[in-house]
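[recover] target loaded
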């Protein structure tokens, strides 16, 4: 008589693996033997695939490694809101205890017009902790800081995580705010701006997300988030021709929906193309911090490309983008900003030039600043997290970014005697790129009533629309520019060849336009007959 199979309860993570392998064509019989369950059980998982996957995308990875059922809380929305608040507070390093969570649950329930009989009992707290994989609150009751001991411990864990990846397959992404019109506080233009009614250029901001791999061989285009879906300066422009991935949000912050869109539409396709081009396996790892604006790890998965969170108390020590990369990017941008403002133009003051700036100018400058971020700096930024990499051991000469920026600042009226502290103060005005959620924001987010993604149609200063350029005028202008470069004494053969390629592009577009007009006229003639 065959022995009776022992009952086995598989975790949600195991169920996901089975479903994934079934999708790839493996047999249910083979999987049932491997995981120690019956074929009927696997068939049930297959029927409930949507429910299992949906639950896992909104649950932490640690939780699905332990849980076996998809049973949700009877206070599902409150549960989600409470966890969003918890994540945000932990990211800031604020001490959290069980009674504090219970009190916050009561406050959120009231905001959500919840069940008046809800008491946030100890049983509710225990079940909530289990659902989200929070094992104890003694640790989370301590003040978080840049913890060197935790960083050392994580390095050992990180070695295991990346053991099967090459430096070309491991990426880091992080966002930062950019107050793109802010000037050194000592400058006369900044003082004039503060006294100008209704014009606060130092409050105009964008969010910029940068991403690169550890070998610095794949720098993805920046993601830039503005307030308006299509500012006037983008009128008649082909948005796909921008050197960045531009999106909008009502307050120009990063949020979960935008990050997920960037991951799906930018990160995954570009990483797959890079891996294929370089003969690498189709897999990659994206390291990000555990900010409230980032979705759960399970939502950031596509085939063998996935994201993982860095522990919140080691981010400032280990995250590569925080090791001077984003700072250098913003310094490069501000150098270009000052050079533009200091150009000789007797008709316009510095304040006039600043008011004339628009989002398009900023986007091209910040894209160029990213382009100018050197490979060595990107590689060096991984030294704390991945010290075994050979290239990070190289000693690079000290950067001259601060020195160059200080010289430009000193040319600004009112800043003639500025010192390095002035530059540091100026470059520290930017925020982290994601908004701190209030309790009302959290409730709106989980109830689906947030309007953050709505387009802001307000126009920035200087957002003049771009006129449509006729094909013939563009072709003539390119021919004239080619003649100018060919006649210039400092022009190199590379410059001339570059201009000739541009002229070729112009001629091709002109020919296409002519052919389209001929086809339309022919169609019109035939229809009139």
């Amino acid at each position: 008589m065959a022995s009776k199979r022992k009952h086995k309860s598989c975790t949600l993570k195991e169920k996901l693996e089975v479903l994934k392998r079934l999708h790839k064509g493996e047999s249910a019989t083979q999987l049932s033997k491997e995981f120690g369950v019956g074929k009927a059980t696997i068939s049930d998982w297959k029927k409930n695939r949507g429910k299992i996957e949906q639950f896992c995308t909104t649950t932490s990875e640690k939780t699905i490694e332990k849980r076996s059922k998809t049973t949700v809380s009877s206070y599902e929305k409150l549960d989600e809101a409470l966890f969003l608040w918890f994540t945000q507070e932990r990211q800031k390093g604020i001490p959290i205890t069980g009674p504090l969570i219970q009190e916050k649950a009561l406050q959120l329930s009231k905001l959500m017009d919840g069940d008046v009989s809800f008491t946030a009992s100890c049983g509710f707290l225990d079940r909530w902790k289990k659902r989200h994989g929070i094992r104890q609150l003694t640790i989370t009751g301590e003040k978080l800081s840049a913890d060197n001991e935790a960083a050392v411990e994580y390095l050992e864990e990180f070695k295991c995580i990346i053991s099967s990846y090459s430096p070309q397959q491991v990426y880091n992404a992080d966002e930062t705010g950019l107050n793109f019109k802010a000037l050194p506080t000592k400058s006369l233009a900044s003082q004039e701006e503060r006294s100008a009614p209704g014009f606060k250029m130092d409050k105009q901001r964008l969010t910029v997300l940068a991403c690169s791999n550890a070998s610095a061989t794949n720098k993805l285009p920046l993601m830039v988030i503005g307030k308006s879906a299509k500012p006037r300066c983008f009128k008649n422009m082909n948005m796909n021709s921008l050197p960045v991935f531009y999106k909008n949000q009502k307050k120009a912050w990063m949020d979960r929906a935008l990050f997920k869109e960037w991951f799906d539409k930018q990160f995954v396709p570009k990483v797959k193309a890079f891996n294929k081009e370089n003969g690498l396996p189709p897999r990659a790892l994206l390291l990000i911090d555990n900010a409230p604006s980032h979705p759960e790890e399970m939502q950031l998965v596509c085939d063998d490309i996935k994201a993982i969170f860095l522990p919140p108390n080691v981010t400032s020590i280990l995250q590569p983008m925080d090791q001077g990369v984003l700072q250098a990017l913003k310094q490069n941008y501000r150098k270009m900003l000052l050079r533009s403002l200091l150009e000789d133009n007797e008709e316009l003051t510095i304040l006039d030039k600043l008011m004339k700036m628009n989002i398009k100018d900023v986007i091209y400058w910040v894209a160029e600043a990213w382009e100018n971020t050197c490979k060595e700096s990107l590689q060096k930024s991984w030294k704390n997290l991945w010290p075994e990499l050979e290239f990070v051991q190289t000693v690079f000469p000290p950067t001259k970014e601060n020195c160059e920026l200080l010289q430009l600042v000193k040319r600004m009226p009112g800043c003639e005697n500025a010192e390095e502290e002035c530059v540091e103060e100026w470059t520290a005005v930017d925020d982290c790129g994601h908004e701190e959620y209030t309790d009302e924001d959290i409730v709106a987010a989980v109830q689906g009533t947030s309007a953050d993604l709505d387009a802001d149609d307000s126009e920035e200063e200087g957002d003049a629309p771009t006129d449509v350029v006729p094909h013939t005028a563009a072709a003539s202008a390119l021919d004239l520019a080619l003649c100018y470069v060919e006649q210039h004494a400092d022009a190199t053969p590379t410059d001339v060849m570059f201009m000739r390629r541009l002229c070729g592009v112009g001629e091709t577009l002109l020919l296409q336009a002519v052919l389209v007009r001929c086809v339309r006229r022919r169609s019109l003639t035939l229809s009139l007959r």
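[recover] notes: Residues 239 and 246 are 8 Å apart (CA to CA).
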